[in-house]
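Good morning,

Attaching, inline, the backbone tokens for the sequence recovery test we're adding to the shared suite. The designed sequence is right after.
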């Protein structure tokens, strides 16, 4: 019944973070990007204001609902719900932006540089889901 919830938000009025119905304490994260707006727009904002302005604006929230939340089976454990972290959301959408706006193969390509354990594989899952949901990008294929 509760798996239909997109995400959970915790806020004290100043601090704020988010997770899913299956997230443990260690999997709640603050939202730190204002994408597609410049992140400099967040100067002076507290965590709650950043989360509301960056994540909960209509476009980003609907995008997360449609393409950036998935269920995953764990090794011998329960199925969990995963929603993108801010850096995954920004990276996936910047990849899509390059595919849409690049004029040459070089402009459409690039490198995603994340550290170990940062969710690169899930970022690519989110890119694949955005591609599949975008009518103008149906010709692109993902090879594994």
């Amino acid at each position: 019944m509760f798996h239909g919830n997109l995400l959970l938000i915790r806020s004290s009025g100043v601090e704020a973070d988010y997770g899913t119905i299956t997230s443990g304490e260690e999997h709640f994260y603050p939202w730190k990007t204002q994408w597609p707006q410049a992140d400099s727009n967040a100067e002076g904002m507290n965590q709650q204001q950043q989360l509301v302005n960056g994540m909960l604006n209509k476009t980003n929230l609907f995008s997360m609902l449609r393409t950036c939340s998935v269920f995953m089976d764990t090794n011998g454990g329960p199925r969990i719900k995963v929603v993108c972290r801010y850096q995954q959301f920004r990276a996936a959408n910047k990849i899509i932006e390059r595919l849409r706006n690049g004029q040459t193969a070089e402009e459409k390509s690039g490198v995603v540089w994340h550290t170990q354990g940062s969710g690169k594989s899930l970022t690519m899952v989110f890119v694949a889901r955005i591609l599949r949901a975008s009518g103008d990008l149906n010709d692109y294929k993902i090879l594994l």
